[in-house]
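Final report, Chapter 2: Outcomes

The project's central promise was a pipeline that accepts a single protein chain and returns its three-dimensional structure in a standardized token representation, suitable for archiving and comparison. That pipeline is now operational. To close this chapter, we reproduce one record exactly as it appears in the project archive, with the input sequence first and the structure output second.
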Amino acid sequence: MIYFLIAIGYIIITYMVSFLERLKKLPIPFLTTFKIYFDLGTSMTRIAIKEKGVVLKEPTFLAYNTQSREYIFFGTEAKNIMGKTPEFLKIIRPIVGGIVSDFDAEVVLTRTFIDKSVSPYISQFALFKPPLEALAVFPVVATEIEQKAVEEVVLKAQCSAVTLIKKPLAVGAGCGFNIFSHKPHLILDMGGGLIEISIVSGGGIVTNKTLKNAGEHMDKLIANYVYLKHGVILGEATCEKLKIECFHFGKEEKIALVRGKSLENGLPKSVKIKTSDIREALYNNFVQVVDAIKELIEVSPPEVVDEIFESGIFLTGNLAAVEGIEQFFSEEIKIEVFKPTHFQDAAIYGLTILDKDKDALYRVASYSKSYA
């Protein structure tokens, strides 16, 4: 009789284990979580979903109607109307220099982006939505309060839990190398608000240098150059277009016809801008980046410098798309420069890689967390 009961108990336990394993595989909201990844950048917001890849890549802009007191345009639409709006419409940049500067606006923008990109994937759940677990990056220069602001933004934008990762670590993983190995790698991440130069090794950041003369600062330099040389005031969008279409480090001379407001009479005036003009306007800015890289290498131990010379410099960010920029840095620093496959989306791509290994994610998150 005892053996019979033991056998029955074994069968019941085996069945229950099998049943629970099959239950976990079912898309039941209470047992299923959606992992989403955030790169809340100064100029661009990127959102990815686990096993789906990047599902949203839009400008970090939104428009606020001061009369009705509501946000009415978001992302690309808000950026396209910048400089063309009536007085009651205010274009807001909620993130400045990689830091959340307008908390409420960033919450609204992030929630809108989630509704736009993530909601279609959870619409299969008719009654209950599964909880959203998030991974997000933040710049090294962010203070504890600024890190907390990123966490609170994501939590208030419908997520139930947030893990924060220092951006250079995520970028390093996105570049394709093992950030936990003790082989140092130098990463030059050139975004819209910040230029982060980091040496990553052993699952942490050996040393870091951050500059604020990034993509958006370069737009202002172009506007100032055209203002002084041609007496024409250009809008921010026009300067960005010039930078994207004309600026490169190759030999080809590109020419663009742009129209701005004349300083003489305030009427529209057209001027021709060449690649050499843009290069002249931005040359000193890039020299500052080169000097910062040299300073970072100079303060590094000799063993680190030797490893970096062998492995090279990894170039990421939207500015890495500039033609010939690898050759420029390589010639100036005398170290080979590489652009990884996902150089523009390296941070968010790196989050998806780190999330595949729970132990690795825990180690990186523990290192990144600097507040209780």
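Archive annotation: The radius of gyration is 25 Å.
This record, like all others produced under the grant, will remain available to the consortium after the project formally closes.
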